[in-house]
Design a protein that fits this description.
With 235 residues, the protein is mainly beta. It has 2 domains: 74 residues, no CATH class; 148 residues, Jelly Rolls (Sandwich), CATH 2.60.120.1340. It has 1 helix and 15 strands; from the N terminus they run αβββββββββββββββ. Strands 5, 6, 8, 12, 14 and 15 form a 6-stranded antiparallel β-sheet that branches. Strands 7, 9, 10, 11 and 13 form a 5-stranded antiparallel β-sheet that branches. β9 and β10 form a beta hairpin. The mean pLDDT is 83.
Length: 235
Amino acid sequence: MQKKVFIVSCILLLSLFNAQVGILTTTPKKTLHVNGTLQITNELNVGGTASTVGDAGTTGQVLVSQGTNKAPQWTTLDIPKPDLNAYKLVNVYETTLGKVTIMNTDEEEVLGIVNDVVINKPNSFVLIQMQGCAYTYQVDGSISYRFIASRNNYTEIASGIEIITKAPLFTGAINNNFFQFKFVNLSAGNHNFVLKGKRLNSVGNAGGMPLHFNTMTPDLRPFDGSLIIYVYEKN
């Protein structure tokens, strides 16, 4: 108890001289610099003035920074809560991803196709899951690539960019890839879906060297990749 009173007294004393106070640090960077954990057992007030109490916010609000030399503000995040009962899974389609080799920058090749996906109700959505791999063994460098899912040959959704790198002392390099794509507000009818692999840029002596999809050894033994399509319709 005496230690706590001493610390508080020091903070109050130094604040009279407009000094910077450090707790567990000898080089404070702000008016109060705590090098450790902080426990608050009651409300946290931000803002306010010398004559008014700061704002404690309301239940569910979060603190949002307002920039340098400005107090943060309590803000209500508008996060919609989906109705999990509004849709139901009505069908699943699956196919195996094919083995493909791409040599050139910006070249893309088809890895898998699922035709005639039946949707019975409008405003439905499709969730596509792909699991595959990229492999290289004749290169010391890096190759970037991505996957692209398309619907009826015109609506496309691209994955994030992946990079595969082979170190000089290793025989090859392999990346296992898993991505999801979602197509929403689909009309009733039959839909066709295509998954492509696209080669992007190369670093080192990777230019012109092969990038293999869905193989995992120098003899190009196939990797059992998959393309699964889940159809969800409104109840």
